[in-house]
Write a structure and sequence with these properties.
By secondary structure, this protein is mainly α. It has 17 helices and 2 strands. The protein has one domain. The longest helix is centred in the last third of the chain and has 29 residues.
């Protein structure tokens, strides 16, 4: 929180994204069914928001592009010196690996005691240690189902210094065009090679790097615009002299766009989507634009974003969000195997979510406090 580019509301947004993924998984494990709210003669169908909770990962990708690009953009605009790449890569390693390796060690210990459903395969463990487990669908999520996103993120981290070269002047237009061509082209070519394959296999292939490169680059370009508009007024707390009416408009328009994409383009089209619906190739890019708008509104001091994302609860969840993302699935799996879950009468999702929520928050806080925070503190005095 002492970092130069820390923006408190975006920590809250990261917490929301992690909880959204957790909500999606708890709903899926409970046996997906319609979720609707009765508003006195009018039924508000929220099912699409639960079924597409994996869009929380899209928020992570765009947010990473935005936050990590800020110092590179300052340099591109001539506001700061070059980024110290040595410390940049060390920061990325210390941010991701300690909690990741600690969890793998704990889950392997539990598996050896037959308390975690994983048959230990040391070749698989080595691939996970090297972040190469996405190369094989058998190992893609064998230890923990959320691990597949980490190599994708690391691909972005490695590529960012090269992508940043395209920021000065009008080269950013070529960067955006290149990202769109690579991402859409990758999805089209991969999809053409998957005829007759099941949905799970299609998801594995299509979601790999560079299948989300457009989202990361859109986050980068949002950061580049943000720096160009606010640098002279930049404050570490993320408050600027930007007109709050415009920041509110950006924030609201971003979430309205996300809602429209969810409700009208994916609702009831799950099978059609993975079987070649045109939105399969452009949906992530479109939703990334909307996410970037909400990020900009938050960063520019939107009063509404401050109310929703800048409060103590949202920021607390955001601080522990990485550990929450790592630990929620093992806890959901563990509770799902209990006699309580197996013998529950009625729809289990509400009780399942409320029962696992305190466990997830507690374990995530412990993981953050004991594993993440000590390594994060090492970075405090390093150059940006």
């Amino acid at each position: 929180m002492e970092a130069k580019h820390y923006i408190r509301g975006l920590t809250g947004l990261r917490g929301f994204a992690a909880v959204w993924v957790y909500l999606h998984h708890s709903w899926s494990f409970s046996g997906p069914r319609k979720i609707a709210v009765d508003l006195g003669g009018f039924s508000l169908d929220l099912t699409a928001w639960f079924s597409i909770g994996w869009a929380g990962v899209d928020i992570f990708y765009v947010l990473s592009g935005f936050l990590l690009c800020l110092p590179f953009s300052e340099h591109a605009h001539g506001f700061a010196g070059p980024v110290a790449l040595r410390y940049y890569f060390l920061r990325r390693l210390l941010r991701v690996l300690p909690a990741y390796y600690a969890q793998i060690a704990i889950l392997l210990l539990l598996a050896s005691l037959q308390l975690y459903p994983y048959a230990i395969h040391w070749g698989d463990v080595l691939l996970h240690a090297l972040m190469l487990h996405n190369w094989d669908p058998v190992f893609n999520s064998s230890i923990n189902g959320v691990y597949w996103t980490l190599p994708v993120e690391f691909g972005f981290y490695l590529l960012l210094p090269l992508l940043a070269w395209w920021l000065p002047g009008r080269r950013w237009i070529a960067l955006l065009a290149l990202a769109l061509v690579l991402t859409i082209g990758y999805r089209l070519l991969v999809f053409q090679s998957l005829a007759g394959q099941g949905i799970e296999y299609k998801v594995w292939r299509l979601e790999q790097f560079p299948g989300h490169l457009d989202q990361f680059v859109i986050g980068m370009l949002a950061a580049h615009w943000y720096v160009s508009r606010t640098h002279s007024r930049f404050e570490p707390a993320g408050r600027t002299a930007f007109d709050p009416r415009w920041s509110n408009l950006l924030f609201v328009a971003g979430w309205v766009g996300i809602g429209l994409l969810i409700q009208f383009f994916l609702k009831g089209r799950h099978l059609a989507y993975w079987n070649g619906h045109p939105m399969l190739f452009v949906w992530h890019g479109l939703v990334a634009i909307c996410i970037a708008m909400s990020i900009l509104g938050t960063a520019l001091g939107s009063p509404l974003a401050r109310l929703l994302l800048n409060n103590r609860l949202a920021v607390f969840v955001g601080v522990i969000s990485y550990s929450l993302y790592l630990w929620h699935l093992p806890i959901l799996n563990w509770v799902k195997q209990t006699a309580w879950f197996q013998g529950y009468q009625g729809y289990v999702f509400p009780a399942y979510f409320l029962l696992t929520l305190p466990l997830v928050l507690l374990l995530s806080w412990i993981s953050y406090f004991l594993v993440e925070r000590p390594f994060l503190r090492l970075r405090r005095h390093w150059p940006s």
